[in-house]
Amino acid sequence: MNLHQLRCFVVAAEELHFGRAAQRLDMLPSAFGRFIRLLEECLHTTLFVRTTRTVSLTEDGKTLLRDARKVLTHTDSIEARFRKNVRLKATKLSVGAVESAAAGLLPMLLNDFRKQRPDVDVQLVEDKTIRLLPRVQSGGLDIAFVRPLKSMASSLVCRPLFRETPVVAIAASHRLARRKRIAIEDLADQPLLLPDRHSRPLSHDFAIKLFEDAGREPEIAQIVDENRNIVDLVSIGMGIAIVPRWTSLVPVEGVAFLPLVLERSNASRHLPLAAVWTRHSRDALRDALLDTLKRNIQRYAAQA
Q1: Is 31 exposed, middle or buried (0-12, 13-18, 19+ CB in 10 A)?
Q2: Beta bridge partners of 274
Q3: pLDDT (average), residues 65-70
Q4: How far is the C-alpha of 106 from the C-alpha of 244, rounded, in Å?
């Protein structure tokens, strides 16, 4: 039995769904299931009752969950104490961000942060939420700015920040591109490019919900994995896309970004952004960055 097996078990117990648990840890389902089987073999017991539709904990599983959480909390505390002195002297901070936050929030935040700590070398990693979260959990990133998922690992702190305004990306040659703003009703008959739900569930569901709220059925033309690929496809006339406004800060030839008209009832239908870091960890540089964020968050939010 090892700590990684215990972490896999705790996530599986929290999700009660091996597929979602494997996704949270950025693992293949087959590899994840193997770790659970090895743990059961090591303990000579069955931890889960599995059927074709449900997963539940056995009594031994419930007992192990209580003990495993205590062990992992204690282990994380030990790691945090030993890292503390090193991080106090460190001058390097690893920051992850989804694409729009990397284009919009991070330039403002890091510019303000460097005024306070010009000695710190900030390394920025741009990626999807589902790839950034495991890197925060493993210590590869000190903090990340992500789309908050419905289910987050208990080892992470997730602090909601603000919501980003959606805009419509449309080919500059399109007849609708001459408008100053556009409504969902105008897009009902337009081919829609959507992000893949597995890799970007919140952005996918967000676009679908906008159409549902307007009583319209989206005309889905293609599912695309990467956000920048969506904008590239827009540029060659493959369809339109709904993206965060900060995405428009990176100009793409042949693409116009139009404000999206939202009904008052839809005022909260903006894309949430959150800061995520490891729970029970002490990090002077990360906390200094968070302090800069807190002092300036209203200004950042006004530009989202």
Answers
A1: exposed
A2: 146, 160
A3: 91
A4: 15
pLDDT at res. 111: 94
Encoded tokens for 115: 């005024």
In the structure, what pLDDT confidence band is assigned to residue 110 with cuts at 50, 70 and 90? Answer: very high
Same domain, 135 and 277: yes
* 193 in the same domain as 55: no
Q: Does pLDDT of 77 surpass 50?
A: yes
Residue that wins the pLDDT comparison between 228 and 36: 36
Q: Are the C-beta atoms of residues 99 and 283 closer than 8 Å to each other? A: no
Distance from C-alpha of 144 to C-alpha of 24, rounded to nearest angstrom: 15
Same domain, 277 and 159: yes
CATH of the domain at 219: 3.40.190.10
pLDDT at 84: 58
Q: Which two tokens stand for residue 236?
A: 């060659």
Cα(169)–Cα(207) distance, integer angstroms: 13
pLDDT in tens, 233-261: 988 889 889 888 888 888 888 999 998 88
In 3D, which of 250, 220, 219, 246 has the Cα closest to residue 235?
250
Which residue range forms the structural domain that includes residue 144? 90-163+271-302
The answer to whether 112 and 304 are in contact (CB under 8 A) is no
pTM of the model: 0.66
Q: How far is CA 67 from the centre of its chain?
A: 29
